[in-house]
Write a structure and sequence with these properties.
By secondary structure, this protein is of the alpha+beta class. The protein contains six helices and four strands; from the N terminus they run H-H-H-E-E-E-H-H-E-H. It folds into two domains: about 30 residues, no CATH class; about 100 residues, Endonuclease III, domain 1 (Orthogonal Bundle). A four-stranded mixed sheet has the order 1-2-3-4. The longest helix has 12 residues. The radius of gyration is 23 Å and the shape is elongated.
Length: about 140
């Protein structure tokens, strides 16, 4: 990619018989129209959305955030998932919380570091009540 950045490109349209090979510019628009759109979403993200169903506080928060664009704590709703200042809000589901902490604690890059070294990447991506205490308990 770094080699391609330094190059300069120019696109030239060739009309009719001058164009020996078909290119994107010579195709008819309706023939290349997008008929279907698929969305790839990680399975654990659905677990996050499901964690709200078992947590009454998250259900109440979900109802409030659905009405307002951004609440006083910086929480928003995007694709059925609550975000707090860009971080994913996790409901009171200790199994999911432990799973997320374990994934970051056991990772190849920062695996098996101490409590604070695990806490910072978790806090950068996720938010929930008692996050710091949960990370400390897990590492201990």
């Amino acid at each position: 990619m770094s080699k391609l950045v330094s190059l300069q490109f120019s696109f030239r349209y060739k009309k009719g018989i001058d164009n020996s090979a078909a290119d994107v510019l010579s195709r008819v628009g309706h023939l290349v129209a997008l008929d279907a759109l698929s969305l790839c979403q990680p399975q654990w993200l659905q677990e996050v959305a499901n964690s709200y169903k078992t947590d009454p506080d998250s259900q109440e928060l979900l109802a409030k955030v659905a009405v307002t664009a951004v609440n006083d704590q910086g929480r928003t709703l995007q694709n059925g998932v609550i975000r707090q200042r860009g971080r994913l809000w996790i409901g009171a589901n200790s199994a999911l919380q432990t799973k997320l902490i374990a994934a970051l604690h056991h990772s190849v890059v920062g695996g098996h570091s101490g409590a604070m070294a695990t806490y910072h990447p978790v806090r950068k991506l996720f938010a929930w009540q008692g996050l710091k205490h949960a990370v400390e308990d897990f590492v201990r």
